[in-house]
Amino acid sequence: MYTDDTQEGFDNYNSYDDYSAHTGDPTLDEYNRQHFKMPELVKSFLVYFRNCVSEGLVFELQTLYEQSWPKLTEDYFEKRPWPEEAEVAALVDSDPVFMILYKELYYRHIYAKIQGGPTLEQRFNSFYNYCDLFNYILSAEEPVPLELPDLWLWELIDEFVYQFQSFAQYRARLQKKTPQDLKTLNSNNKVWNVLCVLNVLHSLVDKSNIRQQLEVYASGGDPDSVSGEFGSHSLYKMLGYFSLVGLLRLHSLLGDYYQAIKVLENIEVHKKSQYAHIPACQISTSYYVGFAYMMMRRYSDAIRTFSSILLYIQRTKQLFASKTYQHDQINKQTDQMYHLLAICLVLHPQCVDESIQQTLREKSYHEKMYKMQMGDLQEFENSFVYACPKFLSPCSPEIDCLPDDYSKEAIQHQTAVFMDEVAQQKMLPTIRSYLKLYTTLPLSKLANFMAQNNRNNDGKWDLDKETQNLMIHLLCFKHKMKNVVWSKGSSGLEGKFQSGSELDFYIDNDMIHIADTKVAHRYGDFFIRKILKFEDLNRKLRMLKI
Amino acid sequence: MAEAMKQTVATMLKGIERYNPDNLPTLERYVEIQSRENAYDLEANLAVLKLYQFNAHSFNADICGQILLKALTNLPHTDFILCKCLMSERQLQQEPINQIIYLADILEQCDFLMFWTRIHSLPELTQRITGFLDSIRKFVCHVVGITYQSIGRGKLAELLGDVDDSTLKHWIKKYGWKEESNLVFIANQDENIKTKNINEKIDFESVGAIMASCR
């Protein structure tokens, strides 16, 4: 079989080793680039790749996409772009569909691997290539005869949104642009325009009837009954689904959390479904959903979303270990979600799964949580900035603005909104720590504690005034800890007001009555560890030879 | 009027049409109707802010201010934060938006006495929003309702903005609370707010299974 040959061949790449490294000398590099001959192996790969695309061999494509392409990239194109369009076109009879797909991979590789990132021209060309691809898919009279592996489709949509994001950031950094670049940017305002990106994603959603399909699926029916001519094809159906997640991401990047959650109507993020089989997509979905909930002060929902996906990641870690090119992204997002979860748990203490708790007890998270609990606002901000999405402003600055860096404005704004919220809740941890010690506590007594705690009053304070202040904080405590929590229904925006945090109280005239959550010592986990230790000891004993 | 417009507006918010700047005048008019008629449509208002986000030159501080005040009328929901996130730092600093931001901040911290003082010094800020003060009183009642089992009568009147006796009676009746001499009985909170105990339950069978696998 052909594959076996190529697979074997890929392992013999050593003979081409001369091609695979930079010399360190720029002129020599340039020489090499021009005289870089496409290795035979790459040639045969491309020809075979094209055949698989045109014959719709999805399983074969999956191997080529997930294994051969990254492997060849590693071997030959670690630091240089894949072969130019013209060179490849000659090999594949200029097959238009294959060339579009090839160029998508070609540019994606430039974005990911080439030092200095894509040039302005490459950004433009990649955009035009996406236009060609989506025009081909969307303007066809009948479903196009194209089938691609789901992972590829997901990464295609995700990359499309990513390149838009990357362009917006690039566009906002006016300070490093040459006059020529600025002129080009100004005369091409339609390229990577936010409306254009939204339009593509919405069109893919509409074309596939994915909303209707999800609605029927959620109510237990057969989605094919409403899928229509296009939506029954895997290509359209999955592109539609991934576009919803793409919209979730795009709305989040623009600070539109309401639309972000709304776009996922009829998708239950935690549930397994026939659409949810791409781990990277699941993880990304939970990250943005959890983040949006956190910003909406729906901490219970955020904590549920994060813990559920983090548990899933803990349990399936081995799965991702092999596919390194996805692994980096997943690891980063996992770490970000632990940070966000830590923030949520500081603001809204609540029981979470023991194994999640275990990770949060590790040094780096533990220290941060401790600082935040002690009211260290800088730590809140640092964790937030590290873990939040890379926000953008949809309107790029006018090119005649002062040549400044505008790319940070959006992230600063979202951070400021979040920090306002944190500042409003500043007194709650102190109050919580006092209340934890009692089951009933007179208002005046707590007011005394609070006054003593406040070192700015030189030991003099007016009890009435302190009680007055305490009342405000207590009302604030109740208000901030009572949030909308989702329990059922097709939209993640729905929910009822609940107090989900572990400590609660009420005031009866002048007396505070406190209700805490008491968690008995967890012996299950303890026993399991001891059992394993015992087993280990036993094994060692048996190995002993006396 | 507001009811009639709701339908027209709903079609403007579907799919990509939501981003059509031609709809902005209609949507802005809808905001003014909401202010006048004490109606509320968060989704339409967010769409206005979104259009401002995409078309910065059309930004209208007056409309935006009304949207923010309307968002406050829907406390304890976090609509105000959603609105804020769609704006820019520069817009938040404009008059009268910065005043509204300050109001929101003290309301979110439940410093109601401060809020009423502020409102009395700036009556024209919220005048155009029909029913604004009563909406805030509803929020006060919500917070009181989840915090207190019983509260001093004077205290409650103070939180509601130093209301007179008949107004106080009106709010007490509206929420089904009971007057007991100097106290107002809100609700029996014992039943909702009580200590929870979380215990782990492991039966012998499940431990047996683990033990069996260790040999």
Q: In percent terms, what proportion of residues of chain B is strand? A: 5-15%
CATH topology of the largest domain in chain B: Serine Threonine Protein Phosphatase 5, Tetratricopeptide repeat
Contiguous runs where pLDDT drops below 50 for at least 5 residues of chain A: 1-29
CATH superfamily of the largest domain in chain B: ARM repeat, domain 1
**Structural class computed from helices and strand pairing of chain B:** mainly alpha
**Class of the largest domain in chain B in CATH?**
Mainly Alpha
Separation of the first and last Cα atoms of chain A: 55 Å
Q: Biggest sheet of chain A: strands side by side, in what order?
A: 1-5-4
What is the element string of chain B, with H for helices and E for strands? HHHHHHHHHHEHHEEEH
- The parts of chain B where pLDDT drops under 50 for at least 5 residues are none
Q: Kindly report the average pLDDT value of chain B.
A: 87
Which descriptor suits the 3D outline of chain B?
extended
Radius of gyration of chain B using CA atoms only? 24 Å
Instruction: State the strand order across the main sheet of chain B.
Output: 1-3-2
Largest sheet of chain B: 3 strands, antiparallel
Q: What level of helicity do the residues of chain A show?
A: 55-70%
The number of distinct helices of chain B, counting runs of at least 4 residues, comes to: 13
- Number of DSSP-assigned strands of chain B: 4
Protein name (chain B): Eukaryotic translation initiation factor 3 subunit K
Family (chain B): Belongs to the eIF-3 subunit K family.
GO molecular function, one term (chain B): ribosome binding
Pfam families (chain B): CSN8_PSD8_EIF3K
